[in-house]
Design goal:
Radius of gyration: 21 Å
Largest sheet: 6 strands, parallel
Number of strands: 14
Helix content: 25-40%
Length: 361
Amino acid sequence: MPHPDLIVTGRRVVTPHAIGPAAVVIAGGVITAVRDPGDATDAARRLDAGDAVVLPGVVDTHVHVNEPGRTEWEGFETATRAAAAGGVTTIVDMPLNSVPVTTTPEALEQKAKAASGRALVDYAFWGGVVPGNDEQLAPLARAGVRGFKCFLVSSGIAEFPSVSEVDLRPAMTRLAELGLPLLVHAELPGPIAAAGHPRRYASYLASRPVAAELEAIDLIIRLCRETGCRVHIVHLSAADALDRVRDARREGLPLTLETCPHYLTFAAEDIPDGATTFKCAPPIRERENRERLWRGLGDATIDLVASDHSPAPPALKCLDAGDFARAWGGIASLELALAATWTGARARGHDPSDLARWLAE
C-alpha cells in the first residue's frame, strides 16, 4: 500500500456503520482506509476536523454540463468548480444539452475531449436513448457510458427527441442484455396542456399535472416487467407515485428513484407569479406533496437526491417578462445541493448518515 499523503481525523466521521471518531487515510488522491484514530499511520499531512462532520464526497448523478456546443450555458471548468465548492467529488453528465448530444460513440468522444484537463472533480457520462439509435447502445456501453437517459416528453432540445413505447421496447431489451440502467424523464405528453396566463405559476403548475408523471411511471413499470431492464426514475416531483414504486419493488422489479433539492426545499404556494427562476419540469408542487417526498426519502422509497443541475443564460429564463411558457425549464443547483438537502433534512430530524446515504452512497 502506498505511503499516505494525507490523514483526515475527526470525532464525527460518517461511515456506513456509524458516526464517530475515525481517521481517513488518503494516498495518491484515493481513500485507502478508514481506521481508528489511534491506528492511523503517519502521513505527509494531517488534518484534524475536530467536531465538524466528515462526510464522503457527494456523487451527483444528474448534471447537465452542456459542453461542447452550449458552453456559454455551462462547461466542465465552471461546472466542476461549482461541484468542488459544494462538496461534490463526482458528477455524471447528462447526454443533453450538449451539441452533439451523447447518442453515438463519436459524440461521446467529443464530450470526453471537452472534459479532458478541465475538470476539477471526477466525472462520468450517461448515453442517450432517442428514436432510431438502438444500434448505438452497445458501442456506447463499450465506450464507457454508465447507463442511458431518455425523455417520454419533449426535452426542450430539438437534437434529443422523446421516445415512445414503440421505441422503448427494443431499447430496454438491449439495455437488459447490456446490464445497464435506463434513466427516465417520466412525464407523458397526454395530460400536459398549454399554460394559461403565462406569468402565473399556478397556470404553469396546472399545465404539468401529477397525471403526466403517474401515467409515465405506469408505462415504465410495465416495460420494466416485460424486458427486465433496470430503470431509474429521475427527478420525481409527484409524491402520488411513491405507492406505485413500492408495489413494483415488492414484485421484485429493478426500479430506483431520485428526487431533487428544489422539490425538497420549495413549495408551489410560495412561488410568486413571474418568478421564472423556479421553472423546472416536472414542476415544483405543493407543500403537502413536498412533505410526502421527505417521508419517501426517510423510508427509502426514494433512493437518492441529485441536483438536476440545468443552467442557462439569464435571457433564456425570461426574468424580465416572467413568462413561464417561454422560460427555460431548469434550475442551477450543483453547488447548493448538499447544503439545501441538509437544511431540510436537519429540520425534519435526519442526521448526517442519512445525508451520506442519499447524496453519496
